[in-house]
Task: structure prediction
Amino acid sequence: MARLGNWIAPHPHGIHIPAADIWVDPSRPVARALITHGHADHARGGHGQVWATPETLAIMECRYGPQHGIPVQYGETLVLGDVEVGFVPAGHVLGSAQIVLDHAGERIVVSGDYKRRPDPTCAGFEPVACDVFITEATFGLPVFRHPETRDEIDKLLTALRANPDRSVLVGAYALGKAQRVIAELRAMGHGDPIYIHGALQRLCDLYVEHGVELGDLRPASDASKEEMKGAIILAPPSALNDRWSRRLPDPITAMASGWMRVRQRGVQRNVELPIILSDHADWDELTRTLTEIAPREVWVTHGREDALVHWCETRQIKARALDLAGYEDEDD
Result:
């Protein structure tokens, strides 16, 4: 009896689909690539042809220059070689997709990175029944249970109200996290100007071009200390403790990341106000997703594979870990 999913081949540098002569999220340049989303641990320049959502192609062009891109809309199906390919929302960042592969009477879903929490900056995750579900496990340990988004964003607003002569400086990754923090602040009624580091400008502009409302954003480099008192300022994590931050009015240093659940991570970055906000599924969301989809097999990658494989095996779900290299946690 043929092994389930024997028509795709996981390699350390990506997942190869010989029947379509194409790779999913390869970490090195290839002739033909399917890309789940724009983070650097999944997308890179130099491919011959790239199939991705229009938003992901726009992000790749913003980051890596012109692409030989072929846009695929959510819900659209195309045929590549002997494989039917579809893109379904993953709920991770703008344009992120699960890639649905149908061949030889089997369906395999490569989920990329995903989350189940509502996010005003991207389309929500859509579960797809399948034979094999390839899942991430970034937060694949029971200790990782993310708090309510609204409660975490309220920490920023509470700190701002309590310190009107200071600023709140939030470290947030440039793609996805920064825009989500801004959009969540707006959803909670924060209409004041938000100041941003120059490294965030291009991707914030791209989000706005794709219909994501971010409100009044201003370059922090153009503002005086007086203007930024009582304001929220966003910057990449690398700027939290460098010379750039010294010009800010007595900043309260915050960091928005799922890793802020680990106290030592915040201490290492001199974070005064940890904000636990992730663009990945937590343990409960990972296990709920597998229960909901009910695949015949689960392949686990990108994180804490062992615990999730064990969870599957205790429920009589066949599971294995994939050894994919080059997966850095850029986005959390």
